[in-house]
């Protein structure tokens, strides 16, 4: 690989092509799509890239983005969780009922709602991992059940409002107005990225594997810093750094560390790459599966609370099918593979930025929301086709790469046996 890079531009292109064959397309298509979408909408309406619209966009992405982040964990196993839309709505409804009707404090009501969703996710994972019921069937049944329970909790009115000055409402309404907040976050993110990249490069060099040069790390850090400080400058021109966006970034970054830098994260990737290999290596397959669905449920609950925070109201429309579809689309568009084993939590951030940018631009232009669904569906289809073509290229380039993933045939996909 170093020899390829020594050849200049041709070497870098060859290295990039080889990386696509082994690691997939990753986030590159989503980044290009985002740049194209922003360019087109800015040309059509000069208010699209205004500080106010971009600040609102940074808050709008959080609820669905959290749900999509939880789905990344499930998709890494090559599975799907169809209950996240219903779980997000049920969690928001449970919070509102406990707080408004039973007088429970907001922090305690939030903990109860999130804990309930985590337990529900763990239950889905247990039925899937221990009883061998396909994940889509388990979570589809759960979606129906949680929607029904949500309707029962809310009662005849179907809606319930909570304090618009309370803790949950402030999740999306509070901004850190002092310019230092946004700039400090940008500096911290840039610095941490540089230190992490240098540490990773040293470890790779010590193990004799391919490593990035100081120049490459500096160039990537400079690009990240430029984006981060530009975003901080834009946010400071409106109301400052939104609390919701800050929390979203911290959660995404924290979970990315868990996936890529901990033994648990390596187990998730290993299980998504090959179930039999992971089992033979001594991994507790059932425990990993249960934990992944518990993570998905937990983040669905957090996403539901952020979505409810925007209006300080919970209603039966808080958990429509569109939530589920958009969350899945965000994860896949951002670069997470439907076939398992490839993806990062940052995929959810990129994907939801694409989806919400389309929604924001079309709202500015006065285009009906129905057209947004059509466009989002088209972007999702392109992403799925690209994912399938990339997988086919990997299998062609490395014959038998996925042969252990489904040892029992189509019917044994990741859930046919128990452990």
TrEMBL record:
Q: How does it sit in the membrane?
A: Multi-pass membrane protein
Q: What is its main location?
A: membrane
**Transmembrane parts of this sequence:** 21-41, 61-77, 84-102, 108-128, 135-156, 176-196, 217-235, 241-259, 286-307, 319-339, 346-365, 371-390
Q: Which one Pfam family would you cite for this protein?
A: BPD_transp_2
* InterPro entries from the UniProt entry: ABC_transp_permease
Compartment(s) of residence: Cell membrane
Q: Quick one: where's region Disordered?
A: 400-419
User: What are the entry keywords?
Assistant: Cell inner membrane, Cell membrane, Membrane, Sugar transport, Transmembrane, Transmembrane helix, Transport
What ranges does the record list as Gly residues composition bias? 409-419
Q: Specify whether Mitochondrion is a keyword of the entry.
A: no
Q: What role does it play?
A: Part of the binding-protein-dependent transport system for D-xylose. Probably responsible for the translocation of the substrate across the membrane.
Q: Which PANTHER family match?
A: ABC TRANSPORTER PERMEASE PROTEIN YPHD-RELATED-RELATED, XYLOSE TRANSPORT SYSTEM PERMEASE PROTEIN XYLH
Protein known as: Xylose transport system permease protein XylH
Q: Which organism is it from?
A: Streptomyces durbertensis
